[in-house]
Design a protein that fits this description.
This protein is mostly helical. 43% of the residues lie in helices and 0% in strands. The chain contains 11 helices and no strands. Bound molecules: heme C. Heme C binds next to helix 4 and helix 5.
């Protein structure tokens, strides 16, 4: 055997060994020097606008998976009016909406909020959008619900600074439109204009401040909501990739 022949022989053996290595890894097929066959067909990949159900399980729609109770129109209308009403502050200059401006994503754009007479608080105002869906309110979670939370800033000395709950009821009782709206929103109650009901009505309004998107509807089970938005294909691919 010449040196060239020896070299050729070694190359041929290694090529065969390589081929065995590949094919046996991929399909366990008998060893052969033939080029490796295409990998066996696996499960059909999901269509471009479908998202792997395993990935979907990791997301929860805004507001959770429970269907929210139907809003009470009278309470929501009253809550909306209260939310924007500066008469709920001692100097009649501050409303909830001063710090949670709905046309500014529910915030005031300030590092810390400016309340009554320009007094600054020590915390940043979070958005009221989707707040009702949180497990608790405020940065430290000290209020359980938006209904309870809403009563806080009205009495807070650096925010709306009303002197007492009684004073709030006094202001509202002096406005005939409010008396009518409270009576309609809380029918059958002996004293519908109450501080507790201020919180209930504002809370009812805030529960509607939810930015549910087609994506939320999709992960809530409405498959068509996503399919209808062909423009979002890349996002679907992105989610699929991140699962890898
Ligand atoms: C002077 C500015 C100011 C006013 C007025 C104000 N807020 Fe706030 N709001 C804040 C700040 C600051 C926080 C955070 C305070 C904290 O965490 O201790 C907050 C927190 C909240 C939260 C909690 C959101 C979350 O994600 O935890 C809600 C809801 C809310 N406010 C609703 C209201 C309502 C309703 C009113 C009117 C009754 C109101 N706010 C009036 C500044 C204000």
């Amino acid at each position: 055997m010449t040196t060239t022949n020896v070299l050729k022989g070694i190359l041929a053996i290694s090529a065969a060994a390589l081929a065995v290595g590949c094919t046996s890894k991929q399909s366990g097929a008998p060893a052969s020097a033939a080029p490796p066959a295409a990998p066996p067909a696996t499960k059909e990949p999901p269509a471009a606008d479908e998202i792997d159900p395993k990935v979907l399980k990791r997301f929860l729609p805004i507001g959770g998976t429970e269907t929210p109770p139907a809003p009470d129109a009278a309470k929501v209308a009253l809550g909306r009016m209260l939310f924007h009403d500066k008469r709920l502050s001692r100097n009649r200059e501050i409303a909830c909406s001063s710090c949670h401006t709905l046309t500014r994503f529910g915030i005031d754009g300030q590092t810390t909020s400016k309340g009554i007479n320009g007094k600054r608080g020590v915390r940043n105002a979070p958005s009221v959008f989707n707040a009702a869906t949180h497990i608790a309110q405020f940065w430290d979670g000290r209020a359980q619900s938006v209904e309870t939370q809403a009563k806080g800033p009205i009495m807070n000395p650096t925010e709306m600074a009303m002197p007492s709950e009684h004073a709030v009821v006094g202001v509202l009782s002096g406005v005939p439109a409010y008396v009518e709206m409270f009576t309609k929103a809380f029918p059958g109650e002996r004293r519908p204009v109450s501080f507790k009901n201020v919180g209930e009505a504002i809370g009812a309004f805030e529960r509607g401040l939810v930015t549910t998107s087609r994506w939320d509807r999709y992960i809530h089970g409405e498959r068509e909501a996503w399919r209808a938005t062909r423009g979002h294909r890349s996002a679907a691919r992105c989610s699929r990739k991140s699962a890898l």
